[in-house]
Amino acid sequence: MVVHTRSHATETAAGLVVESPFIWRARRPGHRHQLVCFPQAGGGAGAFNDWVHQLPADIEVVAVQLPGRQNRILEDPATEVAPLVRTLAQALRPVLDGPFSFFGHSCGALLAFELALALQARGGPRPAHLFLSGQASPVPFRDRPQLHGLSDEEFRAEVLRLGGFDEELAEDEDAMEALLPPVMDDFTLWEQHAMPVDARLDVPITALVGASDSRAPRGEMETWGAHTDTAFDLRVYPSGHFYLFEPGLSSELLEFIAGTVLES
Question: Which residue among the candidates 7, 20, 101, 106 is catalytic per the annotation?
Answer without folding.
Answer: 106
